[in-house]
Amino acid sequence: MNNYQEESKADIRPGEQDLLLPYDFDGIKELDNDPPRWFMYLFYITIFFGVIYVFHYHVFKQGLFQDAEYQREMALAAAAKGPQTDLEIVAFTDEDNLAKGKELYQQKVCYSCHGNLGEGNTIGPNLTDDYWIHGGSIQNIYDVLKNGVADKGMPPFKDQATEEQLLQLASYVLSLRGSNPPNAKAPQGELFNEQQ
Description:
Elements: H1 3-10, E1 20-25, E2 28-31, H2 37-59, H3 66-81, H4 95-107, H5 111-114, E3 131-132, H6 138-147, H7 163-175, E4 190-191
Antiparallel strand pairs: 1-2, 3-4
Helix pairs in contact: 4-7, 6-7
């Protein structure tokens, strides 16, 4: 027995001799200590909870899993709102909202594709005539602004503006019709009249 083993044996306190495990590693002995009682109680509680969980969700199928719970909550929220109907969108015609729409037209850089006066350029169509690619009603314009037109390079603004701002911008675009700006781009799309 070397000096290190003798020292480690000397470190054993009275009463610990019975707790020594029968093996050692490099002269280091391990005591067979029980885990603390609070830890064992917590361990037994988790086992009990696990058994209850398995029976509740998997055996008796009384509980809802995450996806089903989410769908239920969404259905309850929709039911609480009541039946949803598509409201008819009406354009703003007052000067204050049209001024805000014009400001948004400049802020959202609409002019870079449609010109400062809505006359259109090499990228975007003319917004001042009666020809529209995706329809010329306030609803059509609002939908294009909100959802964009990916294949035409028109970005969606639904995440960049509120519903009110989108309506103000759509109303401003609608107010440009018939303004006859200089250097207007040739008509594109189909002739739109209000009776359509």
